[in-house]
Design a protein that fits this description.
Layout (H helix, E strand, L loop, with lengths): L1 H17 L6 H38 L5 H4 L2 H14 L1 H33 L1 H16 L6 H8 L3 H25 L3 H9 L4 H39 L3 H11 L3 H29 L7
Helix pairs in contact: 4-12, 5-6, 5-8, 5-10, 5-11, 6-8, 7-8, 8-10, 10-11, 10-12, 11-12
Length: 288
Amino acid sequence: MNDTVMKNPADRTASREGSPPQRNPERTSVLTWWDRLRGLQSPLLNLAGIAILLAVWQICSATHMVDPAFASSPWKILVAGRKLYSQGAIYTALGQTGKEFGIGELISIVAGTIIGLVIGASRVLYDMTRGIVDVLYSVPHVLFLPVIIFWFGIGSTSRIIIVIWSGILPLVINTIAGSRALNADYRRVSTAFCTPRFKRFYKVALPASLPFILSGVRLSVGRGLIGIIVAEFFMGSGGVGFFVQFHMSQLDTSGAMAVIVTLCVVALLLNSLVAWCEKRFANWSISD
């Protein structure tokens, strides 16, 4: 009987030590909701900043602190946007711009990634092309518009080339940086296992350079949108750029701003898509 009494406290202690810690369901629920709120903090702050900007803009326009004829107002832009979408003319412009931008950006991503990996893997190629890449990136592509028009005309081909020229260089530069920043141990291991050069590109260099590539894609998207709009200003008979120019020539500031707001929303969605790809495929490189 005494032995049983003496063993019970020890057994209870061992049982407590060996069993997993008990969690309080209420505390776990509170922490889960708090983590969700913290995750929504950044989007909510972004929306708050946009709402404050629109409110200040509307107040300044309503009180004539700025001339509504030139600056319009959020409410007038909303009304003009509803009119444009109800008439349907803007869909044709968005479709043309989206098609040309999509083709040019796809070529930029594929070609820029391959070119960057090849140049970054070779010291000789890097030294030979560094000056050329820097010059092409620094010189505004608008200066070459007359040459591009002379060579390819004013059709879709010229506008796609402008998108490629605008978007491929940031991607090439970032991919080269990622390839040259590749850990030397990865190179030594792939060499020790006699990995073929082509397989080394897509099995070692490409995954390790993925954060740099996605950062380059984000820059490429922004510059590509600038390129297509500038091209449509100068040599477009349609598209978003021509649409904005037409409404401004008619002194319809609200209509032009409605198209610009649409383009801003598209740019925001594209950047959000790239950010999602970074979290999905390169989350190991993102620091909290």
